[in-house]
Every structure is written in C-alpha cells, then in structure tokens.
Amino acid sequence: MKLTDDEKGMLDGAEGPAVAAAMDLLVRYGEALDCEHLCDVRNVAGTMTQPSPAKSKLVAEHGWDKAFAVINLDSDADFDVPPMRVPTCQLQHGFSDDSVGIAPYPKQYVELQADAESFYSRKGVNILATCTPYQVGNLPVRGEHVAWMESSAVVYANSMLGARTNCEGGASTGAAGLTGKIPCWGNHLDANRHGTHLIDVDVAVEDFLDWGLLGYFAGDLVQEERPVVVGALGQPELVDLKHFGAAAASSGGVELYHIPGVTPEAPTVEAAFRSSKLPEAVHYGHRERRATYENLNSQGNRAEVDFVLLGCPHASIDQVWRAARALEGRRLNSGTQLWIMLPRALKVVADRSGYTETIERAGGRVLTDSCPAMSRSAPEGTRVFATDSAKQAHYLPAILGIEAWFGTLEDCVDAAVTGRWTGELR
C-alpha cells in the first residue's frame, strides 16, 4: 500500500503503540483487498461496548484496554487505549437496564455493558446505542467517506445520504476510530457506485409493508450488487427507505441502491447506471409481491403468537406514534408480549409525547439499545413471533429457533391483542 508520511508515522509508533497497532491492522486489511491507499474518515460507527463471553473473560482478567486491543485491533499487545482521533459512535449493543425483569438477558451483561459505556465514553466514543445513528444526529453528508458497521445503517448511508462506506467490522472500525483512516476500496470508489440491475415495479408500493417486500425481493435478486428501482413507487418516507434497505441487506448483501429522483446520486435512471445503455429490466408485479410475502411467511405454522416485535431497524418516533394509536384503549392478550425497539434518544421523545404511557397501559414495552437478534434474547417460552420487520423475520427464526409471521404494524398489534396471527396480504 502507498502510505502518506502521516500514515507511516502512525505505523512506526509516532502516536503510540495503540495507534501503531491500529494502522498495522488497516495496512494488513488493505493489502488483503489489493487496495492501493487509505482514505480519510471523520465519522466512525462501530461496536465496542456490547457484551460477550470472550469480552467478559478478557475484562475480568486484563481490563478494558486489553479487551479493545484483542477484539477491536486484533492485537495481543498491552497498551493503554488513547482517545479516539475522529468522531466515533457506538451502534446498537446488548440490552440495558430498562430491560431488567423484561428480557431474559443476563444481569451481569447489563452491568458489564454499563462499565463499558463508562470506559469508552471517556475515550470519546458517543454512546448512541442504535442501529439507526442517522435518526439521532449522526448524518454524514453526500460524498463524505465514513467507516460504518451494521448492514441497515451502511445501506442507508450509501444510498439515501450519498456518503461512502463499506460494511465494516468491529476491528476495522476500532482501528478507524484511532487513526481516521480506512482502506479506500469498494463503495468509496466512483467506479463501484453505479447500478447493476434494473427493477421495474408495476404494482403500487405505497406503505411500509410493501417497501419491505420490495427490498426483500431486490436483495434476493441482486445479492451483493446494486439495484436501480423504477416504477410505481409513490413518494417514500424515511421509514420506508429504512425498511427497504434493511430488507435488501438481509435477503442479499446490498450496500447501495438507487431510486431515480429520490436517492442523491441518481437524478435519472441513466445517471444511476452512468450510461444511456440500460440492462434489461426485471419485472416486479403482483405475482412477485405475493411470492415474496409467502416466502417471508413460510416460517410459521402455528397461529398462536407468543411475542410481537416492532422496530427493526430501530423505530422512528412516527412508528412509535402509530403503534400507540393502534393500541389506544386495547389490552394485550395475557399470553403475548409486545416489544417496541427504538433509540434511547427517541425514547425520551416517546415518553414526553405520551406514547410510552399508552403502549405500557396496553401491556406493551418500549425498550432501547438492542434487539432480540443482537442480544439473542426473546421472552421466555417464545415459540412463535410476529413482526413488521422483514429483517427480523429473516434472521430471528435461525438465531432463536422460533417461527415467524410478517405483516403490517396493524396485523402485529392485532396479534398482540388477540394472541393469534390473522394477517394476510391485501
């Protein structure tokens, strides 16, 4: 790799052993990718505080500095972790103290995470604790190179904000936080940001469920390539595109998509492909919509629902408001739990707006910081869950060995109230 004098200095230890270890990791990473150089980043979103058995053991035996060295820098060296060089935030992590007595999550992990938050915040890590940092103030600008983890956050940053990031890992983001550098490859390069597949939609995509279905179809079709979507799309909102990208990143590995006239790098379909010669379009109509819905609902046989999950990616405040309206004057079935996951910063808004009170009066819970997939934790005895998230319907059956139903928010609230799934595609 071609390093600048500043980068060579960091690698040679001019800024201390931790920064040298970080630069060594980035150089090894870049060389493995046949990458020519690093690019500057001033926005890092990673995971440092979330508990695990390995982290618990490292902290107990050697402390947090060693845990960061091993897990976030791939280093066995002993050194003190300096403050982050560039703005860095913690994405979603394990359940926190608001889950105690609700989620069957080890209390020692809640305590370990609180200790981690104290340590890392002193190092300049902002504890946003959400998979949607763009909802709570972390908004990179178009063309800005960033280093983000979390598939749904990455696809939103690339596609909707026009920022540039690959789907990084815990080690590369740890190194980026200490150096302000990341290998300049993949989505950082102009040559890798044009569309590869054209999807022509001729069935109306007007609500949250339909954006999830379309995203799941697109991801399955293109896998790790870049879809360009045209047709009967209406005017999507933030939550629609949050859902679309998360679904596409789950059924495939989509990190960037274009919707001409909506996403910033695609004013036209020709601009999305950077060519007037377009590929043959793949059709998405009523049959494809129905097949995608049935695919997502092929993991459930029993109609009795034990658990309802809303908020993946973490809910917007408008989604919480909609849930509160749907629950107003109603009461959950005695054998069914309802959790709504959202960023803690938005939980404050939900509390002040009265939405939390309405949801809790109905028997539901508003929880922050994590999700059942991240923490591998659902209500005890859960056999069947229902969700409005294509991402959770995709992952949670495999992670927890439970059945899944996918539908609208209203379908899910009805299941929480009645204890039975009656949702159907309309």
Folded structure, characterized:
This protein has 426 residues and is α/β, with parallel strands linked by helices. The chain is built from 17 helices and 14 strands. It has helices spanning 5-11, 17-32, 53-62, 64-73, 107-122, 151-159, 170-179, 208-222, 238-251, 269-273, 286-296, 317-327, 344-353, 355-361, 372-375, 390-400, 409-418, and strands spanning 38-40, 44-46, 88-90, 125-126, 147-148, 181-183, 197-201, 227-231, 282-284, 307-310, 337-342, 365-368, 384-387, 403-406. The strands form 4 sheets. It has a 5-stranded parallel sheet with strand order 12-11-10-13-14, with helices on both faces. The protein has a 4-stranded parallel sheet with strand order 4-3-2-5. Strand 10 (307-310), helix 12 and strand 11 form a beta-alpha-beta unit. The longest helix is centred in the N-terminal third of the chain and has 16 residues, at 17-32. The protein starts with a helix and ends in an 8-residue tail after the last helix.
Strand content: 5-15%
> How many DSSP helices?
17
The total count of strands amounts to 14
Which residue ranges are poorly predicted, with pLDDT under 50 across at least 5 consecutive positions?
none
Radius of gyration: 22 Å
| Straight-line distance between termini | 55 Å
Helix content: 40-55%
- Molecular shape: globular
| Arrangement of strands in the largest sheet | 12-11-10-13-14
Oligomer class: single chain
The mean pLDDT is 97
Strand count, sense and closure of the main sheet?
A: 5 strands, parallel
Q: Helices and strands: which structural class?
A: alpha/beta
